[in-house]
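> forwarded from #structure-qc
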C-alpha cells in the first residue's frame, strides 16, 4: 500500500519564513489565521488526508465508478463516507464567506489543503474541488436569490457542483458549442444538449448536484460572444429551499479512462432541463472564467500533488530495495547489497523530484496569497498588482506544474524498476492519474498560448514587467550576499534568457504569429524555471536566516539549501535550451505540408 504524509512542516516554513502570513493581517480573514491556528488547521487536514482519503486511493482506482440501469452512479466503496467526513469537518467552506456558512479563512489555506487532498486521493478530491470552483463562480456572478438558494448547501457540502463546458465536437474552441437555452417565460430557461467528460456529473455523495452549464440562448450570435452561463440543479429547489422534483438532466454513460477511476466522468444529457441565467446574457464565458481560473490553479496543484506522493513512495522504496554496491565501496557491508539510494543516478532522480516539489509548492503558495490579496484587499493598487500576478501565473502554474508533475511521477515510478509497472505498488496509478492534469482545464498547449498570446501583452505588458522588475530587484539587493552565492547568478542568467525570449517574440511574432505558436510551450517552461528559481532564491534566504536554530531546524535548513543548489546547478541551465528553441522560430515546424505527415 503506498504511503503518504502531508508536508505540513514545509508549508509552515513557507508561511512563516518565506511569505510570512502575518504580513497580511490587514486582509479580512487573515487576523484569525495566526501561525499556530494555521498549523493546527493544516494538522487536522493532514490527518483526514492521510488516514481517510489515502487508504481509499488504490481501492478506488481498482473499483472505479459504476453507472446503474436507472442512470444513478455509485462511487467506490468508502468514498461517500470519506466525502461526508470532509464536509462535516467544514473543509468545503474553509475560505467561503461566513454569511453562507463558511469560515472566511484565507483561500491560500484551501489551496494548501487541495495539495494534501490531491496527493492522498486525486479522484476523490475532485468532487469537493469542483464544488469549490462552482461556489466561487456563483459568489461573483450569481444574483442574490441564486446565492441564497444554492450557496449555503454547497458550502455545507450537502450539494456538490460541476462545470459543463465540453461537447462532443468542441473542447478548446467553445465558440462552436451547440447546447441551447430557450426562455420558459418565467425567468427560467429550457436547456437542451449533450455535454461530455463532465467530472463528478453524477454520483451518490450528495443530496443534489448543481451543474454550471454553458449554452447558447436561442437567437444569440455565433461564436464565443453568444454563450451564456446557467445554473441547472439535478433536483429542482422549491421556494422554501427544500428539494422538489427531478430536473431534465441525466448521466447517459460513464467514460472508461486511463486514470482517476474513482471520479465519475459523465456524458450529461440535458433534455429541456430548467436552468437559470448566471450573470449577463452572452457573457457566459467571462462568468465561467472565474471557475476556470480557480480550477486551473487547482489543477496545477494536482500536478504537484501527484509528484509529491510519488516522490515519497520512491524515497521509501529507494531506502529499502537492495541492489548493487555503492561506487565508492559497500555502505552496508553486512547486507547482501546496498539500498539503491546510494547510487548517484538514483539520487539524481530523487533530487530532481524534490527540487521541483519544493519550488512548485512555494510558487503555488505565493500565487494563492496573491489571489487572497486580489479578492480581499481594500487598496486598489495592491488589488490590481495581485490580480496581474494571478493572470500571469495561472497558465504557468497550470501548464508547468502539470507537465513536470507528470514527468516527476514517471521518474518516481522508474525508481521501482519493473515493480513500478505493476499495479499493486500504486506507482502506475500516480502516473495515470497525473496524466489528465496536462489535458483538462485547457490542454497545456492552450495554457502556453494564453501566456504568450494574451498575458504577455495585456495592459502594455504591465504584469510581466512587474515580475521581471521584482526578480531583478531581488538579485540586485542580494548580489553581495555570500550565503546566496550559488543562487543569484543562475537566477540572473535565467531571467536574462526569459527577457531575451520575450523580446524575441516582440520582434518576431507580431508579423508572423506562427513564431509565437511554435515557441509558446518553450516560453511557458522557461517562465516556470525562472519563477521556480526565484522561489528557490527566496527560500534560500529564509533558510539561512534560520540556520542557527536547534531542534533539528539547522539540519532541515541545510537540506533545503542543498536541494536549492541542486535546482540551480542541474535544472536552471535548461533556460538556455528553451531560449534556443524559441529563437529558432517556426520555419522548420511549419515547413512540411499537412500531407507530408
Ligand atoms: C477525465 C476528464 C475530465 C474532464 N472534466 C471536464 C469537466 O468537468 N468539465 C468540462 O467541461 N470538461 C471536462 N473535460 C474536458 C477537457 O477540459 C477537454 O478534454 C480539454 O479542454 C480539451 O478539449 P478536447 O478534448 O475537445 O480537445 P481539442 O480541443 O480537440 O484539442 C486537441 C488538441 O489540439 C490542441 N489544440 C486545439 N486547439 C488549438 C489551438 N488553437 N492552438 C494550439 N493547439 C490547439 C489542444 O491543445 C489538444 O492538444 C474533461 C476531460 C477528461 C478527459
Amino acid at each position: 500500500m503506498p504511503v503518504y504524509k502531508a508536508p505540513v512542516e514545509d508549508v509552515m516554513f513557507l508561511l512563516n519564513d518565506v511569505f510570512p502570513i502575518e504580513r497580511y493581517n490587514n486582509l479580512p480573514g487573515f487576523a484569525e489565521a495566526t501561525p499556530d491556528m494555521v498549523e493546527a488547521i493544516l494538522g487536522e487536514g493532514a490527518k483526514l488526508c492521510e488516514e481517510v482519503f489515502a487508504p481509499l486511493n488504490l481501492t478506488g482506482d481498482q473499483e472505479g465508478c459504476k453507472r446503474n440501469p436507472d442512470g444513478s452512479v455509485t462511487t467506490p466503496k468508502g468514498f461517500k463516507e470519506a466525502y461526508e467526513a470532509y464536509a462535516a469537518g467544514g473543509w468545503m467552506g474553509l475560505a467561503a464567506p461566513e454569511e453562507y456558512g463558511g469560515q472566511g479563512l484565507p483561500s491560500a489555506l484551501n489551496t494548501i489543503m487541495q495539495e494534501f487532498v490531491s496527493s492522498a486521493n486525486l479522484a476523490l478530491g475532485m468532487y469537493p474541488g469542483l464544488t469549490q470552483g462552482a461556489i466561487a463562480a456563483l459568489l461573483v456572478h450569481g444574483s442574490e436569490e441564486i446565492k441564497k438558494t444554492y450557496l449555503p448547501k454547497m458550502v455545507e457540502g450537502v450539494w456538490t457542483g460541476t462545470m459543463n463546458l465540453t461537447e462532443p465536437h468542441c473542447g478548446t474552441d467553445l465558440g462552436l458549442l451547440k447546447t441551447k437555452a430557450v426562455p420558459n417565460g418565467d425567468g427560467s430557461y429550457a436547456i437542451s444538449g449533450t455535454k461530455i467528460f463532465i467530472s463528478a456529473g453524477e454520483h451518490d455523495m450528495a443530496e443534489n448536484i448543481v451543474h454550471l452549464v454553458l449554452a447558447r440562448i436561442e437567437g444569440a450570435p455565433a461564436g464565443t460572444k453568444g454563450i451564456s452561463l446557467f445554473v441547472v440543479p439535478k433536483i429542482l429547489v422549491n421556494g422554501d429551499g427544500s428539494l422538489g422534483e427531478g430536473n431534465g438532466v441525466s448521466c447517459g454513460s460513464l467514460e472508461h479512462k486511463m486514470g482517476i477511476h474513482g471520479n465519475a466522468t459523465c456524458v450529461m444529457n440535458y433534455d429541456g432541463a430548467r436552468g437559470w441565467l448566471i450573470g449577463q446574457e452572452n457573457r457566459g464565458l467571462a462568468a465561467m472564467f472565474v471557475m476556470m481560473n480557480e480550477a486551473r490553479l487547482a489543477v496545477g496543484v494536482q500536478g504537484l500533488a501527484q509528484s509529491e506522493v510519488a516522490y515519497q513512495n520512491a524515497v521509501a522504496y529507494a531506502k529499502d530495495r537492495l541492489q548493487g554496491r555503492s561506487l565508492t565501496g559497500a555502505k552496508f557491508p553486512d547486507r547482501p547489497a546496498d539500498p539503491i539510494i546510494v547510487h548517484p543516478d538514483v539520487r539524481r532522480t530523487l533530487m530532481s523530484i524534490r527540487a521541483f516539489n519544493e519550488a512548485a509548492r512555494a510558487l503555488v503558495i505565493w500565487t494563492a496569497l496573491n489571489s487572497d490579496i486580489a479578492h480581499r484587499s481594500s487598496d486598489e493598487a495592491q488589488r490590481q498588482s495581485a490580480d496581474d500576478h494571478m493572470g500571469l501565473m495561472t497558465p504557468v502554474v497550470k501548464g508547468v506544474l502539470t507537465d513536470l508533475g507528470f514527468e516527476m511521477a514517471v521518474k518516481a515510478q522508474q525508481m521501482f524498476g519493473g515493480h513500478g509497472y505493476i499495479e499493486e505498488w500504486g506507482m502506475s496509478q500516480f502516473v495515470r492519474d497525473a496524466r489528465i492534469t496536462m489535458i483538462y482545464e485547457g490542454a497545456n498547449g492552450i495554457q502556453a498560448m494564453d501566456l504568450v498570446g494574451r498575458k504577455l501583452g495585456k495592459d502594455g505588458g504591465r504584469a510581466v514587467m512587474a515580475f521581471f522588475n521584482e526578480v531583478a530587484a531581488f538579485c540586485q539587493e542580494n548580489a553581495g550576499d555570500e550565503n546566496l552565492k550559488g543562487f543569484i547568478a543562475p537566477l540572473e542568467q535565467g531571467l536574462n534568457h526569459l527577457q531575451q525570449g520575450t523580446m524575441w517574440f516582440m520582434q518576431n511574432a507580431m508579423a508572423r504569429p506562427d513564431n509565437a505558436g511554435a515557441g509558446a510551450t518553450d516560453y511557458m517552461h522557461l517562465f516556470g524555471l525562472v519563477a521556480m528559481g526565484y522561489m528557490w532564491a527566496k527560500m534560500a534566504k529564509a533558510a539561512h536566516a534560520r540556520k542557527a536554530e536547534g531542534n533539528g531546524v539547522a539540519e532541515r535548513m541545510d537540506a533545503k539549501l542543498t536541494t536549492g543548489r541542486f535546482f540551480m546547478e542541474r535544472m536552471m541551465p535548461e533556460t538556455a535550451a528553451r531560449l534556443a528553441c524559441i529563437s529558432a522560430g517556426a520555419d522548420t515546424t511549419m515547413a512540411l505540408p499537412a500531407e507530408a505527415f
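QC bot note: The longest helix spans residues 284-320. The mean pLDDT is 96.
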